[in-house]
Write a structure and sequence with these properties.
By secondary structure, this protein is α/β, with parallel strands linked by helices. Helices cover about 50% and strands about 15% of the residues. Strand 1, helix 2 and strand 2 form a beta-alpha-beta unit.
Length: about 220
């Protein structure tokens, strides 16, 4: 096969893939408000967020991270952490260790539907063989708990990142970047994220109409 022919075929394949992505539209977006109650080092937490964002991105959802502090420091000049919650907002607490509670949870965290998830920093530190592995394990734990919020109740699976108990196989996949959501889970995650975005759009419209209505009455 001639070189120009192979180039044309490759270009056609790329164009087809780009067109398919364009038809699907941009990935749905969820904002995660992170409360670092475990005082995880900033670089470790940033790496964990990137890993969790990559895993969620593989599932077709874009994660926007907003690191929130206990007090209103200049790190949040627009007050985004203290604003009224939108349907697309998820609160993520990074806790030092497992907390006593009457709800079922896992070794690495707990999720309260629809918008609150917690992960245990101690879990990642204990299971990591080195400091370099901590962000990856913590990122996988974050993606797992956020997955619960988007997939709904009873969302543990027999394999992949939503497996209820991680063993050597899961940790090996995690460190290789292969501990992911299944294709079916990815579809559900995308649908739920889009549903939340539509609710947010509806809320904004209602607020706008209410403002217009009030303006007309004055």
């Amino acid at each position: 096969m001639r070189l120009d022919t192979r180039f044309s075929i490759a270009l056609l394949a790329f164009s087809t893939l780009a067109a398919a992505r364009e038809e699907k539209g941009p990935s749905p977006t969820v904002t995660l408000l992170v409360y670092n109650k475990a005082q995880v080092p900033a670089t470790t937490l940033a790496q964990a967020e990137r890993e969790a964002g990559r895993i969620l991105g593989e599932a077709g959802m874009r994660a926007v991270w907003l690191d929130c502090l206990e007090r209103n420091f200049p790190a949040d000049p627009q007050g985004l952490c203290s604003k009224a919650r939108e349907p697309t907002d998820v609160v993520l607490r990074v806790l030092p260790g497992r907390i006593p509670n009457r709800f079922a949870d896992t070794l690495f965290g707990i999720a309260f539907l629809p918008t609150l998830a917690s992960v245990y920093y101690e879990y990642a530190v204990r299971l990591a063989n080195s400091d370099k592995e901590v962000p990856t394990i913590l990122g996988c734990a974050i993606a797992h708990e956020v997955g619960h919020l988007l997939l709904g109740p009873n969302s543990h699976s027999g394999g992949g990142i939503m497996h209820g108990e991680w063993g050597p196989k899961e940790f090996r996949l995690a460190l290789m970047g292969g501990l992911l959501f299944t294709s079916q889970q990815s579809k559900v995650i995308q649908a739920e994220a889009r549903r939340r975005m539509s609710l947010e759009t509806g809320t904004i419209k209602e607020q706008h109409l209410a403002t217009v209505d009030q303006g007309g009455r004055s």
